[in-house]
Amino acid sequence: MTRFFLLVMLCFLTTSFSAQATTWDEPWQEQVVQDADCFVLARIQACDRKQGATLHILKKLAGSDLTEEVSLDSFSLLHLCSRSGNEGPEFRFDVGDTTYFFLKQTKPGHYSIATPTTGYARREMGKVSATYRHSYHQALVPAAVYEPTMIAIFQRYHRQAYNSAFINSFVDEYLNRKPAALNEEEIDTFFLQHVALETVYHLQLSDKYALLLPFLHDTKNFHAQTSATRALVAYNTPEAKQQLLTLLTDKSTSLFIKAVVVKTLDSYRPVELKSKLQQLVKGASQEDISFGGNIMDPRVCTHLPTIKESLEQLIANL
User: What CATH number labels 1-162?
Assistant: First the structure.
């Protein structure tokens, strides 16, 4: 547990990527799931970093059928920002590893994942290094939680029915608890609350508003605030809009969370707020927004618009 705790902490697990000049714009998890044809658990049978990997399918969890053994040999959402010499995107898997994959079929027996750094989740000793928001922000969760929540998310994005009884029970259990701190004593609950909040977002659950508020107002917890802000997408109400405007105008709110606020507001198409938003855009920040992390990370060019750019686009959409 200590080893995992030190590695994860809702940061990206480095997956042995060395410093390189090949970089890409990493997609968010909803894009990854929507793009995939199937969600599986597989064992790595063979891997060549340049050519790809051979996967033995252990479980088909959701989506289209596939054969027991398939080739993974391309990337479906890889948008390169730069490339240097022979340092191209690579497959970094170890033979024998057990890993969850979001696979997109390219031709019979051949599949792609989103990028070299997302579209999969490693499993070890019953725990999963899971992405629910973005590969920069991972959580370590039990496979018994990862599988049913991610199956539901996959099925919702692919317009299929999912196990709502399990989802509601899980979300209610963990969001009824006080927001956990990101420390060793509370880390397990912290991760599970992250999963619950992001599941509310992905499934657009519309009856959890009161459960979201403690996390939305947990100003010491960046990840909880971010997830709760995303989860408000299902609540196009005057009260929810006011909650978001409060975050947007609060000088103590991080630029990253403000960017998420604007994205959630954009989903509402709040025409009645147009004049208010036009006032806000005048003094809006033009600072670059990033996920942080190592500047040598290959995902370093992942793009987030400035707050001013986001507001201008929101207003243009009204």
Answer: 2.40.50
